[in-house]
Amino acid sequence: MADSLTVRDNRTGKEYEIPISEGAIRSAEFRNIKVSAEDFGLLAYDPAFMNTASCKSKITFIDGDKGILRYRGYPIEELAERRKYLEVAYLLIYGELPSTTELRDWTHNITYHTMVHENIKKFFDGFHYDAHPMGMLVTTIAALSTFYPNAKNIFDEKTRELQIYRLIGKIPTLAAFAYRHSQGMAYIYPNNELNYAENFLTMMYRPPSTSTYEPNPVLAKALDVLFILHADHEQNCSSTAMRTVGSSHADPYSAAAAACAALYGPLHGGANEEVLKMLEEIGTKEKVPEIIRQVKAGDRLLMGFGHRVYKNYDPRAKIIKKIAEEVFEVTGRNRLLDIALELEKVALSDEYFIKRKLYPNVDFYSGLIYQAMGFPMDIFTVLFAIPRMSGWLAQWKELLQDPEQKISRPRQIYEGYPERHVPP
Ligand code: CMC
Predict the structure, then answer these.
(1) What is the C-alpha to C-alpha distance for residues 153 and 131, in angstroms, rounded to an integer?
(2) Closest residue CA from atom 30 of ligand 1
(3) Is the pTM of this model over 0.85?
(4) Candidates 229, 288, 361: which one to mutate for ligand 1, based on the most atoms within 8 Å of Cβ?
(5) Which of 117, 268, 338, 350 is catalytic?
(6) What distance in Å separates the CA atoms of residue 261 and residue 160, rounded to the nearest whole number?
(7) Which of 1, 60, 271, 347 could make an SS bond with 363 (beta carbons 3.0 to 4.6 A apart)?
(8) 241-287: per-residue pLDDT in tens?
(9) Domain-by-domain residue ranges, the chain?
(10) Cα-flanking dihedrals φ and ψ of residue 18, to 5°?
């Protein structure tokens, strides 16, 4: 057989022919490899899924060695330059860019689902004044499931679509409410006359005493591009959480809350906040060599560097570096930029980083832009979660429509005690 793998089990001397399809073998084939009839069969051991494809997907393509990222075949650079975030969200979920009418309907549906039930405000009121906005976001996304019990009908297409509108529509509102709560400021309701990014900025920053707040168009545009860059990234930790919880047929609010919780971690979406803390701690360019020394000694990680998939410059980081210039024209240059540039320069010319192919990732420069735009540090990961909602939902929908998918249930290698008995 041409496209196959011949495996010889040296324990038994038997040979097995395992088909190769699309550059992969099915791990289940190993179950036929046994030493005896009672043997369970061979397992593939792969902690952290370093080399396991858990699904077939048509959504996002990444070539980590070449630094390529495409949504539904379109290069991220072209989407960021030529489209708006809501068009990209449509593309991720439905597979094609929207026509004019499709975009009009889609925008209408998202816009008219931005309001949240008044009781949601009571959840925010219950949080302590210094509650982390990601904690509030995870909780209130999960809480939405109690307001829409019908969302459990995940195989009814119309019901599913409605929850997609609601989740993409409401996440900026929840995010802004979380911020306003932490500032002790009155909540600002969504404004249906504004576009997605403008509406979010208005809910964040409009003083309650005026109705004339106008978001800066350059900043609103920059935020929209950042939303595009963060919308999906194939089978990352949070999408995997979305798919795993979704595979038990939980409603999409519960699954999205799990995904959001995964994003919160400092090794995933929480890294943008950690980068800023690190830059603040470094404080001056002169301290960069000392930080690099600590990283090389294994005492700390260089936050915003490295990626499981990219072993080249993250294409999103390149675009972000460009947007940063446009934003700084309006806001003034972020004083931490020089430290970041120096850190990048030193790291990219150091043997430690070269050998391990560690490059700046999406989080390295995004925090500098967010800070210049006036966002407090603890809202950075929330700014990642808002657009990633469309990616999570695209992954969730694909999962539900994939006849090969079942409830997620990995195996383990048990290393604990053999049977023993409780003393009488
Ligand atoms: N600083 C210093 N060394 C690093 C870093 C880093 N940021 N990242 C990886 N390494 C080293 C690591 O110690 C290991 O070295 P050795 O081979 O000597 O043991 C080698 O590089 C390979 O790293 P790894 O931990 O096996 O790589 P991974 O694929 O498991 O981890 C990562 C990927 C993103 C979790 C990791 O690079 C990291 O912790 N980076 C910092 C956090 C960060 O910026 N996260 C945002 C990721 S991009 C946005 C997103 O997807 O959420």
Answers:
(1) 33
(2) 308
(3) yes
(4) 361
(5) 268
(6) 22
(7) 271
(8) 999 999 999 999 999 999 999 999 999 998 888 999 999 999 999 99
(9) 4-45, 57-403
(10) -115, 120
Is the model's pLDDT at 19 over the cut of 90? yes
Known catalytic residue at 132: no
Ligand 1 lining (C-beta closer than 6 Å): 233, 236, 267-269, 271, 295, 301-308, 356, 358, 361-363
Query: How far apart are the C-alpha atoms of 176 and 157, rounded to whole Å?
Result: 30
* Angle at 149 (CA atoms; ends 145, 152), nearest 5 degrees: 90
- CA of 358 from ligand 1 middle (Å) equals 8
Alpha carbons 182 and 12: distance in angstroms, whole number: 65
* Architecture of the 57-403 domain: Orthogonal Bundle (1.10)
- Separation CA 338–CA 295 (nearest Å): 19
The preferred substitution site among 350, 358, 359, 381 for testing ligand 1, maximizing ligand atoms within 8 Å of CB, is: 358
Each residue of 34-92: pLDDT tens digit? 999 999 999 999 999 999 999 999 999 999 999 999 999 999 999 999 999 999 999 99
